[in-house]
Amino acid sequence: MTDKNQPISGNDLARFSGPSTFMRLPSANDLKGLDVAVLGVPLDIGTSWRSGTRFGPKQVRSESAMLRPYNLATGAAPFDGLQVADIGDLAINTFSLSESLTIIKDSYDAILDYDVMPLAIGGDHSITLPILRAISKRHGPVALIHVDAHADVNDEMFGERETHGTVFRRAHEEGLIIPEKTYQIGLRGTGYGADDFTEAAGWGFQQFPAHDLWHRSLSPLGAEIRRDIGDAPVYITYDIDSLDPAFAPGTGTPEIGGLTTPQAMELIRAFKGLNIVGADLVEVSPPYDTSGNTALTGANILFEILCVLPGVAYR
C-alpha cells in the first residue's frame, strides 16, 4: 500500500459521481508535501477565432473520471510514487486579458515557492506566457517542447502583443526559453507567408511539421529530443489542436492533417527521463466537443505526462 493520494476507484464510487477534481483525486489548498499540483486556468479571452476554452478545465476534469491510475502500456503508476492533488482554478479576471496574465504569473510565483510541479489545464494558449515567466524566474531559461498546429510567434494580433498567437515570440524575446532547445511539433495549415514558421527557425527553434510526421512513429523523434535536451529543465506545452480534428474537434483553431492520438502517446512516452518542471494542456473548447472526445483525449494526455515525471513508480 502507498500513503500517496489515489484517485477514487470506480469500484468504490461510480465514476459518474464523486468529486469533480482531475481523476477524482483529493483537492488541496495547502501545497506543502505535494509533488504535482493540478490546476485549471479557465481563460478564453486570448483567442482569435472560436471561444469556449474557459470551460476546458471543468470538462477535462469531468472526462478524466474515466481514467484509472495504472498505465497498462508502460507500467507506470504515477500516484504510487508522486503526491498529486488538484488545487482548483486560478481566479482570472474574465473581462481583462492583461490582468488575467498578471494573476497567472503571480499565482505561479506563489505555487513555485513550494517544491511542486504545476500541471495546468487551459484555457487558451495565452496562459503559457505568464507561466513561463514564473517558471524561468525559478529555473532560469528552460527547454521547451511545444506540440501545436501553430507556431504562435506572431508579433501582434489586432495591435495586442500578448495573445494566444504571440506567446513564443514574447518568450524568446524575454529570454524565458532556450532557443536551440525549443521544439515545435505538428505545425501545419495555411499561413500568410513562409516567414510564419521560418523566422522562428532562424532564432534556433527546431520545427517538425505535421506533414513530415504522417505515417511515422514518433517514438524516435521523442528519443532524439530527450537526448538533445539532456539534463536541462524542460517545460511541455501541449495544444490539443496539434491533433487532427478527427481526433480532437473541440478546439478553437482546428487544422486538418494533424497528429494522431497514438502518435501523441508515443511522443510523450519517449520523454521519460527528462527534467520536466512544468506542463500544460491547452485549447480544449467544450462547446465544439459534443461527444466529449476532445476533453477525454486531453485528460489522457495529462495522465501520460504524469506517467513520465521523475519519481513515478512502476509495477
Mind explaining what this structure looks like?
The protein has helices spanning 56-63, 78-81, 97-111, 128-139, 167-173, 195-203, 219-229, 261-269, 293-306; strands at 36-41, 76-77, 84-89, 117-122, 142-147, 177-187, 206-209, 233-239, 275-282, 313-314. By secondary structure, the chain is of the alpha/beta class. The protein has one domain (23-314): Ureohydrolase domain (Arginase, Chain A). Helix 6 (195-203) links the parallel strand 6 and strand 7. Helix 1 (56-63) crosses helix 9, helix 3 packs parallel to helix 4 and helix 8 (261-269) runs parallel beside helix 9. The model has no long low-confidence stretch (mean pLDDT 96).
Q: Which CATH architecture would you pick?
A: 3-Layer(aba) Sandwich
What count of structural domains?
Answer: 1
Strand element count: 10
Give the overall pLDDT as a whole number: 96
CATH superfamily: Ureohydrolase domain
Rg, Cα atoms, Å: 18 Å
Number of helices: 9
The low-confidence parts are none
CATH fold field value: Arginase, Chain A
Sequence of strands across the biggest β-sheet: 3-1-4-9-8-5-6-7
The profile of the biggest β sheet is: 8 strands, parallel
3D shape: globular
- How would you classify the helix and strand content by structural class? alpha/beta
SSE string, helices as H and strands as E? EHEHEHEHEHEHEHEHEHE
Q: Termini separation (Å)? A: 12 Å
**Strand percentage, roughly?**
15-25%
| Text of the CATH class | Alpha Beta
